[in-house]
Amino acid sequence: MGAGSWGTVFAKILADAGTPVTIWARRQSVADAINAGHRNPDYFPDIDLPGLVSATADPVEALEGADLVVLSVPSQTLRGNLAAWSGHLEPHATLLSLMKGIELGTTERMTEVIAEVTGAAESRIAVLSGPNLAREIAEEQPTASVVACIDHGRAVDVQKAVTTSYFRPYTNTDVVGCELGGAVKNVIALAYGMAAGMGMGDNTKATIITRGLAETSRLGMRLGADPTTFAGLAGLGDLVATCSSPLSRNHTFGEQLGLGATLEEAARVTKQTAEGVKSCRSITDLARKVGVEMPICDAVERVCHEGLDPRAAVALLMGRETKPETDSLRSDK
Ligand SMILES: NC(=O)C1=CN([C@@H]2O[C@H](COP(=O)(O)OP(=O)(O)OC[C@H]3O[C@@H](n4cnc5c(N)ncnc54)[C@H](O)[C@@H]3O)[C@@H](O)[C@H]2O)C=CC1
Ligand SMILES: O=C(CO)COP(=O)(O)O
């Protein structure tokens, strides 16, 4: 459900793994183009989609008989989208979230939104997350990922449905950790992009990745995640890929801000969804609610939404009280 960048490439993965896929596209013209030419002209005009992929602009048609429903719309629109779709889900279907954001206002993770809107049991809801830049996967460059579900058997079913020569999914039962890793890394990638835009070097960038992972782990542990998840593909793996890649929309958005662009100017350059710009608000709200310090996310939120200059944000972060490193990795700090 969603014929954007990741939805389109994920359909290719499923089909290459032998699963017939119907993509739901918001615009009829995109569905028509996929059916007629087996390409998505808006996102990947140069990538052939396998014959097992078809498309429709009718959500009811897409959902009918679907054993696996893959959700790939912007995080902040999921609730509205799902409200229209939930009456048409097969009662046994696995609901798989590809989304990497936290809902504004409720501070809910995407699987929490899915459970709330559809009423589906947690055991039917899974998330896939990892270092998965859609463009590289479209070109069949090898990567790995994580499928997380509290029901291990269901995670294995999804794993089987998406294993190809270029896409290697692992399973995990830590849904909370995998989802938080995916959402927070977008905010850290904004910070990294800002540093790159301001001309800062590799020490700064490595510091942002490492301290970004520390604050992600702190939040995760407070919310019951398994700390080892953050050393894995949905934690460090995705953080490194997103921070360092010019293909990342969050990196690019941050870089524009670092170069002095306004939020509107950065959005014009990035074009597609840069989830961290909105999720920095919900993540800092969530962190405040549960009493966890997330200084990099706070700084990004202030740059994006309070007009703080990125250079002033650096000064604030560098001026924080000094402390032992081990303390700052504890969930009660
Ligand atoms: N693009 C990538 O490389 C990856 C993206 N993700 C995550 O996947 C999710 C989807 O991202 P992308 O496919 O990249 O985004 P995108 O911006 O390329 O596509 C979003 C899709 O959602 C549709 N949509 C449905 N309802 C919408 C509404 N009300 N407003 C706006 N769009 C609506 C759009 O038409 C579009 O097809 C995000 O949470 C992102 O963080 C995760 C891994 C990789
Ligand atoms: O999640 C991603 C890679 O794993 C994609 O990152 P961006 O949304 O920043 O492009």
UniProtKB/TrEMBL annotation:
Substrate binds at K100, R249, N250. It catalyses: sn-glycerol 3-phosphate + NAD(+) = dihydroxyacetone phosphate + NADH + H(+); sn-glycerol 3-phosphate + NADP(+) = dihydroxyacetone phosphate + NADPH + H(+). Coiled coil: none annotated. It comes from the Bacteria. The active site is at K185 (proton acceptor). Signal peptide: none annotated. One of its GO terms (molecular function) is glycerol-3-phosphate dehydrogenase (NAD+) activity. Pathway: Membrane lipid metabolism; glycerophospholipid metabolism. NAD(+) binds at G2, A3, G4, S5, W6, G7, A134, R249. Residues 174-314 form the Glycerol-3-phosphate dehydrogenase NAD-dependent C-terminal domain. GO terms for biological process: carbohydrate metabolic process; glycerol-3-phosphate biosynthetic process; glycerol-3-phosphate catabolic process; glycerophospholipid metabolic process; phospholipid biosynthetic process. The keyword Nucleotide-binding applies. The keyword Nucleotide-binding applies. One of its GO terms (cellular component) is cytosol. NADPH binds at S5, W6, R26, R27, Y43, K100, A134, R249, E275. Keywords: Cytoplasm, Lipid biosynthesis, Lipid metabolism, NAD, NADP, Nucleotide-binding, Oxidoreductase, Phospholipid biosynthesis, Phospholipid metabolism. Pfam families: NAD_Gly3P_dh_C, NAD_Gly3P_dh_N. Catalyzes the reduction of the glycolytic intermediate dihydroxyacetone phosphate (DHAP) to sn-glycerol 3-phosphate (G3P), the key precursor for phospholipid synthesis. This is Glycerol-3-phosphate dehydrogenase [NAD(P)+]. It comes from Glycomyces harbinensis. The gene is gpsA.
